Amino acid sequence: MGDFSRRLKVDGYATPLALIASLLLILYTTLWPFRFRFSRLPLSAYLSRFTFSPSDSFDFIRNILLFVPLGFVLGAILDQRGWSKNRVRLIGFSTGLMLTIVVESLQQFLPTRQPSVSDLIGNAFGAVVGLACFRLWQKRHAVVEWLRVAITEPPKVLVG
Prior knowledge:
Blueprint: H1 3-11, H2 14-31, H3 43-48, H4 59-80, H5 85-107, H6 117-138, H7 140-152, H8 156-159
Helix pairs in contact: 1-4, 2-4, 4-5, 4-6, 5-6
């Protein structure tokens, strides 16, 4: 278990609060202005409202970055519980995907928002990136040493 995880385990409240903050940030930024107009929506109409491209060039990147904290905090919480790496990956990806499906579905009922398949992909990928960032944070000393060696020592191929 990494140093970061041990510190959060001692504090006890840090990771749940970070998870709640991440969820609130996601809900606020994706569902603002909260003027829902709920109506019956047949499945064909529901599916036809999804677009297949980002609304602008930075939209996909913003969607990834929005879900990175969620993946990071989920990684920390599940690691604290001693779950296997594969199980953490599966839960992190599934949670990111399910949350974005809920958010994009709710956007169907907001006149100013447009649900998008690219948002689904970007958000789920963002949760996975967050998990990877947590793993890198856990192994930060090894990563820093690897980078130090890679930068300061010439590659053996060039020496030969």
